[in-house]
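debug: dumping io for the single-chain case to check the tokenizer round-trip. Nothing else runs in this session.
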Amino acid sequence: MEELLKKDFYFELPEELIAQDPLEDRSASRLMVLNRKTGAVEHKVFSDILDYLNAGDCLVLNNTKVIPARLMGVKAETGAAIEVLLLKRRENDVWETLVRPGKKARVGAVISFGDGTLTGEVIDIADDGNRLIKFSYEGIFEEVLDRLGEMPLPPYITHKLTDKNRYQTVYAKYEGSAAAPTAGLHFTKELLKKVEDKGVRIAYVTLHVGLGTFRPVKEDNLLNHHMHSEYYEVTDESAQIINSTKEAGGSVICVGTTSCRTVESAADEAGKVRAGSGNTEIFIYPGYKFKVLDKLITNFHLPESTLIMLVSALAGRENVLNAYKTAVEEKYRFFSFGDAMFIS
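debug: decoded output
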């Protein structure tokens, strides 16, 4: 296989095109429609997505829920400010976390949040420098977190989010993500009802998005890049909806790269989706043969990111880079709160 280089996925992105705030109306974002066979693009509004979905198709949505995982605290002994980002629950009240500044968080350090409503003790340091923290509190952890925590917005968003729900899809259900599956942010309940009224079936899957999704690719040769691990779950009902759609000749349309990675991870060699749960490290880049996905709804991604590589695996690198060049010229809004692309 020829070498795949990170620099092959670079494009110039003016900083002012990075969307800092969500639009008032979720479905009013712009929608670029990319034909992956011809490379042709059309400019639409997101609510026009209905025109591209047909009776008998299946829309796959990731129903993970973002937890307000960013906690601002102080070191109990010194009062020094410390920021803690919850990454993964290890067991009951022990979490794997990212702590800034890390050097202040030695084993045994106690951090206080919300004037002591919540306290955490650093009990271990993982290989990658992440801290294991054991939390103590009164009542229910999720409720305490909801009061004290902030949404862990990606590093490129500098504005403060006034409404926590805007970094949450309208169908978010199972808590566990450190980042939103952002392609789904464009759907309203009304739009989803119209989708179903049109005879399109909806299959919900769960993939808890980790912060690794923002981790830059450091290797020049992509084949040396190690993908982060994320937990996913596919129910019997959803597997059955997806498989019967394929058998009947309908299209499986994934909303977001996370839904795509989930169904591709859960599929066997014959392309049948198996119900179950597990951790996936699937890395999709050009040359990958899709087993389940036919079409994709996604946002506009960072240069040289694993996400633009996934999109290029589906639509071809040249088509994608040409479409992105057009998006920059037409001043589309990029990333989490940005506009959408439909790859047909």
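debug: round-trip ok. The chain has six helices and 17 strands.
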